[in-house]
Amino acid sequence: MTLQAGIFGYPLGHSISPAFQQAAFDHLGIDATYKAWETSPAKLGDAVSLLKSDDYLGANVTVPHKQAVRQSLDAIDPLAESIGAVNTIVKENGRLIGHNTDAYGFIQSLKREADFQLSGKRVVLIGAGGAARAAVYGLAQEDIASLVIANRTLENASALASEMSDELAEVHATSLHAQALATSCSEADLIVNTTSIGMLHGPADGQSPIAEGLIPSDCLVYDIVYNPENTPLLEAARRAGAQTLGGLPMLVHQGAAAFELWTGQTAPVEIMFAAARNAL
Questions:
Q1: What is the number of other CB atoms lying within 10 angstroms of the CB of residue 47?
Q2: pLDDT of the residue at 14
Q3: What is the pLDDT of residue 76?
Q4: pLDDT at position 134, please?
């Protein structure tokens, strides 16, 4: 019996998950297919219920379903519950369990691809949505010195900062347009974009979330947008002399963690990276 896995999202034309997940199955000789299941919000519940069939391993979940999918599951892993978002569904003894591997993928990318040690570092994080929440929960486990959450809607940044006040030594919120952001960026060791600003074919295609003049030369700029590989933010960071990290490693590392949850086997990460780069 050929097993099935896939990704729920809407729309899904941008996804390269099928390319690198299928490459992993094929490399390990696992008889399974991985497909993009474009699913509208109205049909999500019915689509997820199909995963209980014998031939399904589980699924990934992407925008806009990471929060809504929770009501269609039998249980949610404590980390995913804390983050408030599910990006991986695993079938265990006929039950559908929600997990979040985004936090893991975010941190692993920094450590493995950028050789960046987070302990004692000052971080500015742009955004306050689902991806930002996963990143913040990952950072909270790494003994960072401080975190500034900058968002277009200050209330959302403030809510996330307040929620994390017991987990982080120092956490503040600011507007993307505030003078305080300039001060925070000038002191930052790491600047992270968790928004879709700069994403190809997105609503802010060709734009950068912060001005080039705010980027110090001695920091790492991490943009979780993976398409295009060279986002406007990363191009501005290079011109400023800063180190850069794109979003592809996070995508692959979170996907590798999902693969291991489904199969119980070590993911062939380098095979997955090669397939992902080829797909782009």
A1: 18
A2: 79
A3: 98
A4: 96
Cα(189)–Cα(182) distance, integer angstroms: 14
Does the annotation count 66 as an active-site position?
Answer: yes
Token code pair at residue 174: 């600011």
Q: Are 252 and 273 in contact (CB under 8 A)?
A: yes
| pLDDT at residue 178 in the model | 72
pLDDT under 70: residue ranges of the chain: none
| Candidates 66, 91, 111, 121; catalytic one | 66
pLDDT at 189: 98
| Domains of the chain with bracketed CATH | 3-100+249-279 (3.40.50.10860), 103-246 (3.40.50.720)
Q: What order of strands is seen across the sheet that includes strand 190-193? A: 171-175, 146-151, 122-126, 190-193, 220-223, 243-245
HEC string of the chain equals CCEEEEEEECCCCCCCHHHHHHHHHHHCCCCEEEEEEECCHHHHHHHHHHHHCCCEEEEEECCCCCCHHHHHCCEECHHHHHHCCCCEEEEECCEEEEECCHHHHHHHHHHHHCCCCCCCCEEEEECCCHHHHHHHHHHCCCCCCEEEEEECCHHHHHHHHHHCCCCCCCEEEEECCCHHHHHHHHCCCEEEECCCCCCCCCCCCCCCCCCHHHCCCCCEEEECCCCCCCCHHHHHHHHCCCEEECCHHHHHHHHHHHHHHHHCCCCCHHHHHHHHHHHC
pTM (predicted TM-score): 0.94
- The pLDDT score that the predictor gives to residue 139 is 97
Pick the closest to residue 66 from 105, 32, 27, 98 (CA basis): 98
Compute the distance between CA of residue 196 and CA of residue 122 in angstroms, rounded to an integer. 23
| Nearest CA-CA partner of 193 in 119, 257, 128 | 128
